[in-house]
Structure formats: structure tokens, C-alpha cells
Amino acid sequence: MLGSTHGILTSDLRQRVVACGEQPRDAVHERTTNTASAGDLDVSGRPLYAPVPDLDRFFRPGSVAVVGASDTEGRQGAGITRQLVAWADRVGARLHPVHPTRASVFGLACVPSVRELTEPVDLAVLLVADPLPVIEELAETKVKFAVAFASGYAETGEEGAVAQARLAAAVERSGIRLLGPNTNLNAFERFRDDLDGPAVALITQSGHQGRPVFTMQELGVRLSHWAPTGNEADLESADFISYFAEHPDVGAIACYLEGLKDGRSFLLAADRAARRGVPVVAVKVGRTETGARSAASHTGKLTGADDVVDAAMRQFGVIRVNGLDELQDTSALLARARTPVADGVVVYSISGGTGAHFSDLATAAGLRIPRLSEARQAELHQWIPPYLNVSNPVDNGGHPVGDWRGRKIIDAILADPQVGVLICPITGPFPPMSDKLAQDLVDAAETTDKLVCVVWGSPLGTEAAYRETLLGSSRVATFRTFANCITAVRAHLAHHRFTAGYRSPFDEAPRTPSPSFRKAQALMCPGTQLSEHAAKQLLRAYGIRVPREQLVTSAAAAVRAASLVGYPVVMKASAPQLAHKSELGLVKVDLTSASQVRDAYRELTDIARYEGVDLDGILVCQMVEWGVEMVVGVTRDALFGPTVTVGLGGVLVEVLRDTSVRVPPFGEDQARAMLAELRGRALLDGVRGGPPVDVDALVEVVLRVQRMALELGDQLRELDINPLMVLPRGQGAVALDALAVCR
To answer: In the chain, how many H helices and how many E strands?
Structure first.
């Protein structure tokens, strides 16, 4: 590895490089990331479809050029060249060393430059400090792929980022697909070819972090590919997710991500995997401020706001895990396990304490531990003493597993129609009992379409029952910890629930503007925060209900407005750039008479004059007295663009921060899922005798706000409807206040 850090360019650096004369290519090369047609763009001009890059010739080239090849012992280039020679031999590729002063390298004839290669080359590996001149030469040879190991680019700071932008521009003009710079040899590792079944494909932005997954091969888990994406000047993680999702050998995709090059590309790739039913499991760094800061300094990539990243992954079915051990176990299970026939989990053990402990953890994690029927319990008690619990968890007391009864018990459990998963935690080896139990579980797994899992708790892991019996089975999923087993099984069941009902939100995304868009566009004022009155007009344009109200500029007009709106009323100052009106005393509520309205008008205008607020008028509003206060808003994320948030509103939004977020486009199912994620969701169903509120109307507001965010795109920087008063069921929802900031 020629460098330990990597980075992705920011858009401002790209623009600066273009300004310095590095123009994008004029001709359209045959690149698999070609621009989408008009029909493949959403209403804001963003792509709805990402073609799958054809990476077959990257992973299985017919011919390879190694530029800067060396066989001088003690030099780093010699070790890399030796590994590439061995790899080329394994994949059946012809290798051509390229070096200006050598006649041969490791016995292979050498050419002085890429222009003198004797045949077309699929892949060029660049072992040079500055790959830019070589990329420009390779453009003439029609090479398909290149790998740049060189470091010193965006991971080093602004100067390196500018150099990386120049490299990316040259790659774009050439039509070559580049892996790197600042990548490593992981793609050219020796993969075991004696393992069967669906494989795990691995994507990492830090080579060392992929080692634990790679070594799963020694536990019998097949690995098909490893893509170390480096700085992602061209090829990015999303490209490999799309490619692996279509690959017939791949059963699951495991990712270690420190940042994302482009949020939209990642979601399109995840969408493709979800359509194909291929699970994507990811460790994504940046859950905490410290982690995000460290990842940014290590990779130069945008980590993104973690709540948005987390929501986007859930939205498109990406399974996010925390540790590399979870990445190993979860991806291995998802690659190899069959589609579940039921979601019920039975915990079977030789100890009541073990079963109770595991069942507690599993239930807390959301797994369903169904009570077995009385008939099934009676059947199990034929072989298990009657004083032991067999309702689930099933405690056999130990002795039955040592004879013919052990297999009978397992078969009876697996025959239950509500059982889809059997988990047997063996907390420690107790031969010969544990050996017989392991063998019975393996034999039973071969005869069923249900998932059989074993947790082998011994810290040694050298026992024959573990090393030979359990790991020797491709049908039993074996774990070393309770937590990893529960995490993987939960992910397995959730993945199949998700994909069974998956409808791509990109298929339903709006492609043409609605009539609301034209009305809304006329209200936008670039670079300013709209007044509350103008912000509510924006909501009205999209069919979002606001209170009866009038904007007035005199006390007499305020009195007339109050009589038309109907007492009691609320009066509020309205002005551009005015936020936090209540803190300034610019809101008066529960006004019930003309005299109160006149006094309130004078007081509001006096305060505004004192505070230097340039009013456009005073709002006289209908007072909505009962409902559940919610907040619905739009913000822009650095990675994903516009995001929509819903949560408990009023002062609770700042105190409890009980919110849920999604990245457009999304449908009604995701809007309802957002509400289900709220800790205060029960408030919508009515508490302490209160009536349930109009959840359907709330969902409709969320979807209309999403439409606004999609159509206005970059024009809308921020929208905050707070509070949105959700009225009793059947009565709708009313936006009592709104803040909109134009870009």
C-alpha cells in the first residue's frame, strides 16, 4: 500500500480546476456512468437511474500492463509486481511489464512505454508517483481500466485535492475507468476457489479494515471480490455496489465506508441492490462528532450528517452495523441463508439459564419468540422431562442430546409452521454432549429449508465440534457471541421483509413540475428568508392548509380582519428575515375583543420599531386551540441534497429532538414509517382520554412538503412548519407558523 489515507474532492475544488483550464471532455466516451436521458431525470434534474458499470474486464482482464514494473529486491515496486504476476497467472491474464530502462522484469519482456504495448490492454496498473502523464498516454491505447496506487492527493489537503481534480479531469476525457488514486493491492488478492455457494463481495475505503472479512474464507465463507476504492477520483463505492448486485456469484455485499463521494449515486446503487434482493451490509464511520472528524481527516470525504445517513440506509434497505465482527457475521449469514419461511425464532439449549438469557436479548432486539402450541409442547415432552420448560425457549435439561432423543427434538421444533429460525446457544464445550448436539444440528440443517444457527461460546475455538463439525457445514450459521447472532438474524429477517414488498421510490418520483411549482416559484426571493405570510402562501401553493388569516397594516384593518376571521384570534408580526417572534414579544394570543386587537396592534408595531424589524404587516390569524403540535421541515444535506423531517413540534422539538428524517423521493409507506420511529408516536393515537388525531392528514402534509422540496430543488434552502397542528381524526392538519429560506 503506497499511502494510508484517501480523499474525495469537494465541488468548489472541481470548479477551481475547471477555471484553471482543465475543461471536461467534449466528446462522449463509452463510459458506463453516462448521463441519463431526460426520461431518467426527476423533476429537479437529478438522475433516477444509474447504469451498471461493466467491471468484468477489471476483475478478469485478458491482458494487464504494469507501468513502473520492477524486480529489484528490497524495492516496494518489486513486491507489488511479483504479486501482480502471480495474480495474472491465476486469472489467466497476459502481463506486460512497462519500464523505460529495463529489458525484462521477472523474466517477462518489458516495453519502454505504454505506446509500445503489443496488444490492447484491459487493465493498466500504475506503479508511478505521478499517474497523470501515463493516463494521457493510455487514452491513446484504448485501455479500459487503470489502477493508481500513488498517494499525496485529496487526503493530504487542498493542494493534493487540486492535483486529484486534475487527475479526475484527465480520466474523464480519456474514457478510462480509474480505481484510486491511493488504493492498494486488495483487488488482486488470492481468493479461495474451493468454496461453494453464494459469495460475499467486499468494498472498503481502508484496506486494513477489510482484512477480517477477507479471512472469513478460512471459516468456509466464500469471498468473490474485493474492491479497495481509495480516493474515488473516478470509480466509487456505488459503482461496485451496482456491479456486485448484478453479479450471479454474489449473495451479499459487505462495505466499510468512511465517507461517500455522492449521496445520490449511493442511493441509486442501493436501490438496484434492493430491486435484485441482494443485501448490502455496511459499517459507516461517523456516528459521533469525534468519529466524523477523524474519518474526514483520514479520508478527505464527506461523512454526512449521521442521522441522515442512517435514515437513507434504512430507506433503501442497507443494513448498517457497528463493528467489523458484525460486518463479517451479518454478511456471511445473508449471503448463505435461504429466504425465511416464517419469522418465529425458537431458542433451544441444554440449560434453562442459557435459554432465558438469550431469549431476553433476542426479544429486546425485536425478534419474535413465539410460544409453541400445547400440542407441540406435548410432543417435545415425549423426550424432555415434564418439569422442564419447552414453550420457547426450549430447555432439554442436557441428557436427551446425548442419545437418539436429541435429533427427535430438533426435528420436532423445525416442523413447527410458526418457526423460521432455530438458534442453539452452546455457551461452552461439554463433550461428548456438545459434540453430539453439534452433529445433530448439522444433520438436521441439511434436511430443512429453515435457518439453523449455533452460538459456540468457547473462547478457544479449537474444539473439533466447532472447527470441523460446525464450520464444516454450509447450512449451519455459526457465531461466537450472542450479540452477533441476534444482529445477523434480525438483519436476515428484516432484509427479506423489506425486499418482499420493495417498490423503488425512484419509479414513482415526479418527472415534471406540478401546477403548484409555478405558483411557488413566483414567491421565491433568492438569498432571503420569507416572511411568515409569504411562507404560508408557499404552503398554500402546495395545498397545505393554513389558518384563516389576513395581513393588515392598521389597527382598524386588524379589527375588521378579526371579525372576518372569527374570535378568538392570534396576532403576529410578519417580516422577511424574522425568526423567533415569540422571544421578541411579537406574538399575541387568545384575543377576544376589538379593543384587545387594537391594543395588540399598537404593541406589536412598537416592539417591531424598537427591535428594528421592517414589518410587511401584522397577521391576524384564526386561533386553533386543540391538536397535537408537530414539525415538518426541509433541510439540505451536504451528501444527499434535500431531506424531509417530521417530529414532535412546538417547544418539544428543541427539548426532546424527537424527529425522523428521509431523503426524497419516498412514498406513503416511508412517510408512515417516519411517524412510527418517533418516541412520542403514541400522542397521535390519543392519550389520557384525548381523541386520536388525523394521521392521514399528517402523512399527506409530509408528502406535499416532499414534493415541494423536489420541485424547488436548490431554490429552497430550508423550510420549517412549526407547529403543524394535527387536529382530531377527520379534521385535517393546519400549519400555524412557517419559515422558508430561499437559496
So the answer is: 25, 27
Per-residue model confidence as pLDDT tens digits over 106-160: 999 999 999 999 899 999 999 999 999 999 899 888 899 999 999 999 888 899 9
Residue percentage of the chain with pLDDT more than 70: 92
Q: Taking Cα atoms as reference points, which of 332, 356, 352 lies closest to residue 482?
A: 356
In whole angstroms, what is the distance from residue 301 CA to residue 284 CA?
Answer: 12
For residues 412 and 343, what is the distance between their CA atoms, to the nearest angstrom? 17
Q: What whole-number distance in Å separates Cα of residue 477 and Cα of residue 462?
A: 17
Distance from chain centroid for Cα 686? 33
**Residue among 575, 605, 568, 604 at smallest CA distance from 587:** 604
How far, in Å, CA of 480 to CA of 92, rounded?
Answer: 38
> How far apart (Å, rounded) are the C-alpha atoms in residues 685 and 693?
6
Q: What is the DSSP annotation of 72-98?
A: -TTSHHHHHHHHHHHHHHHHT-EEEEE
**Can you state the percent helix, strand and coil of the chain, rounding each to 5?**
40, 20, 40
Closest CA to 383 of 348, 425, 353, 427: 348
* Closest of 534, 687, 647, 599 to residue 607, by C-alpha: 599
Strands 108-109 and 104-105: antiparallel
Query: Number of C-alpha atoms within 13 angstroms, CB side, residue 380?
Result: 28
- Cell reading at 120: 490492447
> Which residue's entry shows cell 501482480?
84
Q: Which of 709, 701, 667 is nearest to 684 (CA)?
A: 701
Q: Which residues contact 322 (CB under 8 A, 6 or more apart)?
A: 283, 287
Ramachandran region of residue 430, left (φ > 0), alpha (ψ -120 to 50) or beta? beta
* pLDDT tens by residue, 38-74: 468 999 888 998 889 999 999 999 999 999 999 998 8
Number of Cα atoms under 13 Å in the Cβ half of residue 418 = 11
Give the amino acid at 9. L
Residue 541's Cβ-side half-sphere holds a number of Cα atoms within 13 Å equal to: 24
